[in-house]
């Protein structure tokens, strides 16, 4: 699946990911391939993702929005 993490200033990550964990307003949640479509408000925390090579990366965020649709995860942070 494709993960895009963007801020108002730049694209922080755009590439393939096998797993993404996001800090949702009601608690963190994990998105895997073929996840149901959703839109969520994000709170302060970490976006953690695993690349197909098995590397796990994270980005600290202050909040934002996430959109999951058709194996594309778009994360807009602030």
What does this structure look like?
The chain has 78 residues and is mainly beta. The protein has strands spanning 2-6, 11-16, 19-24, 27-32, 38-42, 45-50, 56-61, 64-69, 72-77. The chain has one domain (2-77): F0F1 ATP synthase delta/epsilon subunit, N-terminal (ATP Synthase, domain 1). It contains no helices and nine strands. The strands form two sheets. A five-stranded mixed beta sheet has the order 2-1-9-8-5, with no helix packed on it. A four-stranded antiparallel beta sheet has the order 4-3-6-7, with no helix packed on it. β3 (19-24) and β4 (27-32) form a beta hairpin. The termini are far apart.
**CATH level 4 superfamily:** F0F1 ATP synthase delta/epsilon subunit, N-terminal
Indicate the low-confidence ranges by residue numbers: none
Beta-strand content:
over 45%
Number of domains: 1
Shape type? globular
Cross-sheet strand order for the largest sheet: 2-1-9-8-5
Largest sheet features: 5 strands, mixed
Kindly name the structural category: mainly beta
CATH class division: Mainly Beta
Condensed summary:
By secondary structure, this protein is mostly beta strands.
Name the features.
78 residues, ATP Synthase, domain 1, four-stranded antiparallel beta sheet, globular, five-stranded mixed beta sheet, mainly beta
Topology:
Blueprint: E1 2-6, E2 11-16, E3 19-24, E4 27-32, E5 38-42, E6 45-50, E7 56-61, E8 64-69, E9 72-77
Parallel strand pairs: 1-9
Antiparallel strand pairs: 1-2, 3-4, 3-6, 5-8, 6-7, 8-9
């Amino acid at each position: 699946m494709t993960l895009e993490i963007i801020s108002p200033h730049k694209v922080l990550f755009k590439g393939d990911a096998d797993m993404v964990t996001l800090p949702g307003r009601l608690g963190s949640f994990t998105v895997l391939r073929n996840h149901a479509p959703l839109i969520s408000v994000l709170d302060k925390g970490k976006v953690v993702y695993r690349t197909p090579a098995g590397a796990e990366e994270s980005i600290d965020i202050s909040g934002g929005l996430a959109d999951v649709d058709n194996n594309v995860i778009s994360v807009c942070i602030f």
